[in-house]
Amino acid sequence: MKKIATGLFVMAIFFSTLTASPAQNGQEFSPSPNLSLADSHGAKKIGCASCHAEKRLLDDNESALNPRCVACHGSMTDDAAKTKALINPHQSHLGAVACTTCHHGHTASQAYCQQCHNVALAIPGGTAVEARNTTGQLSFQNQTKESKPQNVDVAIIGSGAAGFAAAITAHDLGATVVILEKQPITGGNSLLAAGGMNAAGTTYQEERGIKDSAELMYQDTLKGGKTLSDPDLVKILAIKSASAIDWLTGLGADLSEVGRLAGASVDRAHRPRGGASIGTHLISVLRKNALDRGIDVRVNTRVVDLLMDKQGRVSGVRVYGKHRGLYTITARAVIDAAGGFSANPVKVAFYRPELADMATTNQPGATGDGIDLGAIVGGVVLDMKEIQLHPTIAATGRTMITEAIRGNGAILVNREGKRFVNELDTRDAVTAAVLAQPGKSAFLVFDEGVRKSLRQIEGYFSLGLVKEGDTPNELGARLAVSATALEATLASYNKAYDAKKDADFRRPDLPRPLRSPKYYAVEVRPGIHYTMGGLKINREAQVLGKDGKPVPHFYAAGEVTGGVHGANRLGGNALSEAITFGRIAGENAAKQAKEQLPRKRQIR
Ligand code: FAD
Ligand code: SIN
């Protein structure tokens, strides 16, 4: 307390002496790269109050801070409009994130994009050494004194598709809800989702004359999962998939385009019209719905422990907030939607040593905390060795090149310029085929027709990942593959398209020929993408214990669970699972909260 009081006092001095903002000064503000942003502001006599007007602790969402950045510097949209460079960090698929996600006042700034993309982005204060000595006074990090526990009906760990779906559902049934997210932005891996969301028997499929059914989706999923999946869970996934699309559409999502992803018998991957990435769109819709409902969403807030009462019921969470430190939230039910562990190299190597050091497509928060938290309170964990590689990660960096590009017609060729696989086979098969090629990589080749069919491809151009040529020969020369072989491969593929039969590799779907210049290619290799294992749940999204009974008042949904995808997930099924089981978890948790009489909570 003494430390906080001293901090407030020092802040008050600053506020009274240094209060001018750049806008007030009418000056153009260009921070020095070698100073922290706070020091840069200070050097320009722009005082602490410009950012920290309120004389109170920062909340973990830093919600008081960000409007102040915008007031002086303009919004992300304003900044995006000024940027002429190919890479425009203020207009990215992450959406309108808080300024402080990248621009740190008292420590070195870092573009969040660089967590996944190896692009060189200069950022103000990015090379600044550690904070100046005001840091301790201003940020109050590591506050250890616990404040009074808060109470909610439902506490949700993770702000991906599963977490948001659970939160909105529980809220709409009358429950008070909090979403806890350890990253500075919401969305998790769901935000990165690209190719689409699977659903069978939707109105959008019907409009296109696509004949699909829950039964066919069930069979495809079981087959893709090599019969390791839990058929009961797969049944729920398939049966409820169309209503998941309807639910999202009702919230304002556009999932009206339908395309093919690998391992599906028919087109059932739903995505926004024009072929934009699904994740950005879905998360912005879910985020807005949560915001409109006044749902309490806390970023920079890591769940570090689950609480149990004396009856063995999960009764809340202990969290660590970036500014607030440790505190407790008691809850009548907890939903674990904390995602998988593809971005946890130690865990990946523990289960699959041969994958150590392989690049991942995942966001940095995908570390598997939710699985550990669930196991500690008695949840059974299964299929942890089932780790999926995505066959097409850009060979430079770790940007995933969506399967939808193959679904829309792209082919894979090796360094000899030859096709070597049915590009729409399941991921395990395509991955194995790529790894068997010289250099363990391949080229994803497409033309202008494919480019025009899928808006998300433009992102790969912006990141400088695509090579191009006016003719197949020219492209071949740029790739240093045999130009004549590449020309022959494309001619043979186009012949197969005309004949509607791929005799060479038995590719089931040939949506368009590859004969519209220009011709393009991205070099790709496999990378760690999805963890099929996790907490065992039942059809009600209850986490099961060793005795086969539910761990009371504890639910899980999405990638944190195991059982739906078996040994190999089909592209497009993860979002479907996250939304469907997120909704089930939200509904059951809200019902449970309502049924419970007020009780004195006993925390372990
Ligand atoms: P996430 O969306 O990962 O959310 C979990 C959240 O929990 C994260 O934000 C994480 O930071 C947070 N968290 C973790 N631990 C804690 C903690 N201790 N405290 C607080 N918060 C915590 N699937 C498809 O179906 N279609 C696609 O097109 C598709 N494309 C993909 C593209 C990419 C690049 C990637 C990486 C995955 C893709 N997937 C796709 C897979 C799919 O996106 C994910 O499996 C799915 O979104 C998982 O949703 P989720 O809600 O379970 O978890
Ligand atoms: C992709 O678009 O290739 C990823 C789809 C998925 O992982 O489901």
Q: In words, what does this structure look like?
A:
- This protein is of the alpha/beta class and 604 residues long.
- The protein contains 20 helices and 19 strands.
- The protein has helices at residues 2-17, 22-25, 37-43, 66-73, 76-82, 135-139, 161-172, 203-207, 214-224, 231-250, 278-292, 345-351, 369-376, 404-407, 427-435, 448-453, 457-462, 472-479, 483-499, 573-595; strands spanning 150-157, 177-180, 197-198, 257-259, 269-271, 296-298, 301-308, 314-321, 325-336, 381-382, 387-394, 411-413, 442-447, 467-469, 519-531, 534-536, 542-544, 550-556, 561-562.
- Helix 9 (214-224) crosses helix 10.
- The two termini are 26 Å apart.
The span between the termini is 26 Å
The amount of helix comes to 25-40%
**Average residue pLDDT:** 89
The major beta sheet can be summarized as:
8 strands, mixed
Structural class by helix and strand composition: alpha/beta
Please give the count of helices. Answer: 20
The count of DSSP E runs of length 2 or more, i.e. the number of strands, is 19
Contiguous runs where pLDDT drops below 50 for at least 5 residues: 1-27, 132-144
Bound molecules: flavin-adenine dinucleotide, succinic acid
At a glance:
The protein has 604 residues and is of the alpha/beta class. It is built from 20 helices and 19 strands.
List the keywords.
alpha/beta, 5-stranded antiparallel β-sheet, 20 helices, globular, disordered N terminus
